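Supplementary Text 2. Reproducibility record for the structural model of the 477-residue chain.

All settings were left at their defaults, and a single model was retained for analysis rather than an ensemble. We include the record here because the model underlies the residue-level annotations in Supplementary Table 4.
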Amino acid sequence: MSRTILGVALAAALLGIVGGYRAGAGFWLLGRQVAPTGTVSDRPVARRKVLYWKHPDGEADFAPSPKKTSDGRAYLPVYDEEEPTIGSAEATPPAPKGKGKLLYYRNPMGLPDTSPVPKKDWMGMDYIPVYEGEEDNGNTVKVSIAKIQHAGVRSEPAVMRRLVRPIRAPGVAKPDERTLLTIALRADSFIEKLYVNETGRHVKKGQPLFRVYSPDMVKVQVDYRISTNASGNRDDAGALQRLSNLQLPHAVIDELKRTREPVISFDWPSPVSGVVMQKNVIEGMMIKAGEEMLRLVDLSSIWVIADVAEQDIGQVRVGSKAKVSFRAFPGEIFTGTVTFILHELDMATRTAKVRIEVGNPDHRIKHEMFADVEINAGEGEAERLVVPVSALIDSGNRQVVIVDRGEGRFEPRAVKVGARGDGNVEIIEGIKAGENVVVAANFLIDAESNLKAALSAFTAASFEAALPTPSANETNP
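Retained model, structure tokens:
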């Protein structure tokens, strides 16, 4: 009988233990938690963090520190494990029409703080919902449509374009050195008649310049007439060579061959068409062999020597087109081509000499005329990513453009700039082709961005200072 009662008692005790095990995850035994397997666990209870305090009635009212309602009820703490996970039905309300899936809520002041559910910051500002396609790095500025229209904000896309950069420089007209020619005789001579007796006179090729008598030239003609070989046959080769060495005019040599009589005095024709730049002879004087008598130059083409600044010379290429205007002809543009760049700089002015060849068929352009030169650098180069110059905000130590992301959202973007010209600036790094950038009233957006950054730094410090230190009771309820 006693054994039966003892067995029933043991069975009842075992059923109670098993029932307790099935009813819960374990039970407390002598101050230690019994694991579901029946073993005793020594793990400490996890410490929970209080995120914020919410209204006891579930209203959209939150606080960063403990608070009470007007009727004296305490706000309820919300722990980190109590926040719904992103993507759950509770955390993801239906998105407005035209929006993508709701991802999260971000801090209204741009702080690196997000929430999966609607909430307010410590100043009572609502967190901003972020949908698919609207993610940003916290730098986006939101501006109302009314303010955009009132300020005249305007955007244009960044495009690939060949960047033509006008380089402006002063210049001076000079004679084309390739057409310069000096008139000098190769034998002592006397000028019997001077036909071209003034500087600046235009002459044509073949036109007589002066009449000359030279004993040496007459002697060579006589040698040609009496030249014979040992057998009595004529040998004109040597005499003709001496005539050519003295550069006698072809008309004189032809007359000598025809008549075999020396020409005592004859007219000296102009070898080229041009203008008399210098005249060092007068009628009746004797000229020594090799002395310069006249200097001629062809004015149908002139040179403009431009002084290009050192910082611009690297962009100038031989073959680049140039526009030249002279103060003597206001409103008139002459076109030319860069034909040469001097290999050294002027130490005093830090400029390089650039030669531009300009046509002058009517001889209107005079030597030493001052000119204004505009060289089109960049022609023939590859296309570059460019934006209008007005889109760039340059403070000296940073360059920024404002990217228009649509619907009143703007993002200041630091960029690296390159060459400028034609009202555009090259963007080497920072944006991509097709992105819209603000080209008008961008300083308004930049001011909003700077204000946001300043408030972010201020509110971040204030928020950290306002957060209370969780007590033992709060972390271990």
